[in-house]
Amino acid sequence: MSSVFDTEKVKEVVRQVYGIDGNVTALTGEVDENFRVSGRDGDFVLKISGSDVNPFTAQLGPYALDFIAKSDPSLPVPRILKTKAGRALAEVVDRSGRSRWVQLMTWLPGVALESAPGSRSQRTSCGALAGSTAKALRGFSHPGLRRPIIWDLTQPRLLQPYLDEMRDFSAHSSLTDFFSRYLGILPSFSALPRQALHNDVNLRNLLVDERDSDRAVGLIDFGDVVETIVVADLAIAAGAHLIRAPGSGGITIQDSVKLSILDVVDGYRSVVPLGAAELSVLNWLIAARLASGLLVTSWHRRRHPHSNHFPERSDADVKHRLSLIAEVESMRFV
Predict the structure, then answer these.
(1) pLDDT at 1
(2) Span 43-55, pLDDT tens digits
(3) Domain spanning 111-329 has what CATH number?
(4) Hey, what CATH class is 7-106 in?
(5) Residue 168, Cβ neighbours under 10 Å: how many?
(6) Residue 226, Cβ density class (10 Å: 0-12 exposed, 13-18 middle, ≥19 buried)
């Protein structure tokens, strides 16, 4: 995805809207444009919404972070900086004349999980942070929370256009078969507890301590916040630890796939109690996250070949992911 805003324009926006001067570095993003702003006032992230994002959707991330700042001020998540007008969001116009929504938040120190060595203690710590974030979001309400979003594990039908467009993808048949089976268990979700969740507790958004990678110290990017089933963020966090590159905390013979998942479960459940009904669908939810990740990121690479947000997948990587999906689907956690 090519950037509509260059760094000079971002400097101008930050100065005019927030009264802050600093150097600007472009970051990656799936839909939004993201920039790091560094200056004497500190380090920040400016997030610029996609051109088709409506105000309700744009509000979700900053409003959720403001809610957490009150419900659990100690939680290591970004803090929203208000505009000079005292608002969490500002509207700006891009060079095409389209309205975009911007938000500025603090930069969190730490190392992205994908770049750190892994361990059982780390997985438990990441699970606990995901659980603490879910706990802090209890009671958060907003008209935009019940929105269609492809990353919500309770909305797999939204992935059908991606499957249709990727018919020549080597994993198409396997993914189609999986989602057909997954649709069959959707009715059981209706009885599960729901609330607003982060919904993207992944390898890039989880941060660990630079000197002690066993310790999760931050969770960033609240752009996918949605109301969904409470167990979903556990599934997302557990799935993230299964797809790490070899040599950087990936699963070994000693650390089996199920053991890795159970480490994350232990951390999450230490904060958020889960019932038998939630644990009974955990295997499906983790497998669905792995499957949707494989599908959407492969689709994104095809649509945006010059984007570096998602890496290219080798045939071996695709086969490994499909094997992992099948293995997790067969597991039981109650």
Answers:
(1) 44
(2) 999 999 987 888 8
(3) 3.90.1200.10
(4) alpha beta
(5) 7
(6) buried
